# Entry
Amino acid sequence: DAKTTQPTSMDCAEGRAANLPCNHSTISGNEYVYWYRQIHSQGPQYIIHGLKNNETNEMASLIITEDRKSSTLILPHATLRDTAVYYCIVLAGKLIFGQGTTLQVKP
Amino acid sequence: KAGVTQTPRYLIKTRGQQVTLSCSPISGHRSVSWYQQTPGQGLQFLFEYFSETQRNKGNFPGRFSGRQFSNSRSEMNVSTLELGDSALYLCASSLVEVTTNTGELFFGEGSRLTVL
# Structure
């Protein structure tokens, strides 16, 4: 029952910004958007989360549209180690992971 | 500090058997949640425990159960194993309940179960 829609896969050149979109058109007013990533054979890793305002940390930036129906995760300078599956999740009492976006960073 | 520890990392069982997986959360974390990951279904939420109480549950049959101890360590049990239970079982810990919207989850490396 994922409440988010993400592209299945994306490519990005090493050193360039990776912009990963997510649609969450049915999000409720008090539901947060979380981003996690999973590198092959490892457990998912928390990246960032937000409610209304844009957020930035040492890993990434999260841009949430004013109507909150979509968001974009930005990795400012992608490296080969950023190749992973990225999950956009709306926290509705529990984390429901969708299929995620497989980001391939290429040299 | 030490991360989330899951044991065993790999195990093989046969249909009809039962299995118990263990998860030791990060020190000080009181919430433990469990997920099943398969190639076909992706990551699916099983249940969350906080202060020894189950706080939330996913859509899994009663064969899947869990518990949390007073030291926050958690176990999950799967009885009468089926071939479809073959999966990576991930445990995650958090300072607070996931439902509070103020915590991030820290995942372990997972326990890979193969049912023959």
The mean pLDDT of chain A is 92. Chain A has no helices and nine strands. The longest strand of chain A covers residues 84-91. The two ends of chain A are 36 Å apart (CA to CA).
